[in-house]
Amino acid sequence: MGVMGLSMAGQTLSEKIFSRAANKEARAGEFVMASIDCAMIHDITGPLAVRGFYEIAGKGARVWNPSRIVILFDHQVPADSIKAAENHQMLRAFAKEQGIINYDVFSGICHQVMPENGHVLPGQLIVGTDSHTCTYGALGAFATGIGSTDMASVFATGKLWFMVPQTLRLVIDGRLRRRVTSKDVILRIIGDIGADGANYLACEFAGSAVERMSIAERMTMTNMSIEMGAKAGLVEPDRVTMTYLKEWLTEEPIRGDEDAIFEEKHWDVNDLEPQVAMPHRVDNVVPVSRLPHVKIDQIFLGSCTNGRFEDLKLAAEVMGDEPVARGVRMIVIPASRKEYMRALRAGLIEKFMEAGAIVESPCCGPCMGGSFGLIGPGEVSLSTSNRNFVGRQGSPKGEVYLCSPAVAGASAITGEITDPREI
């Protein structure tokens, strides 16, 4: 769409969210001071934000609104070093002092725990000290990652400056085939657009394929919006959103106007096949059928991208009754305690363990090379997470490939990266 008649045009979902947050009409390209609906920190980035808050506001100061701040422990859980344990102690004390909600050890990954506990609603402006905060856009919120210093300011004032982003509408039509997932869709999009193809844009996912996706599937796509440079990823609220949020939703959600101004790109996924991102870039994407034989040492099934019950169930179905291939380590980590319990009651935990995998308590695990599951020099990790940068999961001389849960399940029983449609 063109830019003529800007003042007369309707507003995108992002512009409407910022207009409400800034209490004035906000248009793409404008700078606004916006009120924050919810702010999240975790055990890695939280301590710096807390120290910054005290530097800004002084010892004994109170945060702007403790009911709008959430603390989670997920990156180094259980504590894997004395320093991590000290950080946990500090954040527990801060939460108690300020009256802030604190999801302590074993609750799960922040980007899963936040939505499933009602901390994310359509139309809200949410910030978190983690780049994958954009996950929450699956529920129609504008959610974005910020630095710990910015978060210190939010703790003190409840507000933050933003430039309202332009919107890039990603229209995804068609019907996904068997064992092809939303992870394959977002990998294909990132491969086509590039790691910087959506810099500081609000990527809005739409189209018939998106309409049929569950919230879990949508979260996978919005989660990886940052991997193409986006400021946020959003899906406009619909009946799927309403059903997911029925326990917390009290008013009609904000939606964008039909005559809003945005750029638009289209994909047809009828013939899409499973995709794999090769080392060491997320946009280094190829269809699995064009990948040469790649033997693997480790499989990581989990993360804020693909650690939900649906993901675990799909991988287990692909594996069937086959064991994990000899010489392959498979680490399975549900994204939250709730998702773990769903998998436990469904028999998936037992199934993975009997196959030879190890199932860990909810946390980020090896995703950022933190707690455990690191790879050594020359080793290959196949991961359902969101980043495959050099050294991301351990040795800088190792390699990380990104894939869907279906590809992970198929590869677990063959010992090499495998097309799940062939199993």
TrEMBL record:
Q: Per UniProt, which keywords does this protein have?
A: 4Fe-4S, Amino-acid biosynthesis, Branched-chain amino acid biosynthesis, Iron, Iron-sulfur, Leucine biosynthesis, Lyase, Metal-binding
Recorded hits in NCBIfam families, A to Z, give: hacA_fam, IPMI_arch, PRK00402.1
The EC number(s) given in the record are 4.2.1.33
Q: Does the keyword Protease apply?
A: no
GO term, biological process aspect, one: L-leucine biosynthetic process
Q: Which residues bind [4Fe-4S] cluster?
A: 304, 364, 367
Q: Which Gene3D superfamilies match?
A: Aconitase, domain 3
What is the required cofactor set for this protein?
[4Fe-4S] cluster
What is the catalytic activity of this protein? (2R,3S)-3-isopropylmalate = (2S)-2-isopropylmalate
Q: How does it assemble?
A: Heterodimer of LeuC and LeuD.
Q: How is the cofactor bound?
A: Binds 1 [4Fe-4S] cluster per subunit.
SUPFAM superfamilies, alphabetized: Aconitase iron-sulfur domain (SSF53732)
Give the pathway annotation.
Amino-acid biosynthesis; L-leucine biosynthesis; L-leucine from 3-methyl-2-oxobutanoate: step 2/4
The UniProt entry, under InterPro entries, shows: Acnase/IPM_dHydase_lsu_aba_1/3, Acoase/IPM_deHydtase_lsu_aba, Aconitase_4Fe-4S_BS, Aconitase_4Fe-4S_dom, HAcnase/IPMdehydase_lsu_prok, Homoacnase/IPMdehydase_lsu, IPM_dehydratase_rel_enz, IPMI_cat
Indicate the family of this protein.
Answer: Belongs to the aconitase/IPM isomerase family. LeuC type 2 subfamily.
**From the UniProt record, which GO molecular function terms apply?**
3-isopropylmalate dehydratase activity; 4 iron, 4 sulfur cluster binding; metal ion binding
Spell out the PROSITE patterns in the cross-references: ACONITASE_1, ACONITASE_2
- What is the official name of this protein in its record? 3-isopropylmalate dehydratase large subunit
Record function comment: Catalyzes the isomerization between 2-isopropylmalate and 3-isopropylmalate, via the formation of 2-isopropylmaleate.
Domain annotation Aconitase/3-isopropylmalate dehydratase large subunit alpha/beta/alpha: ranges: 15-290, 291-415
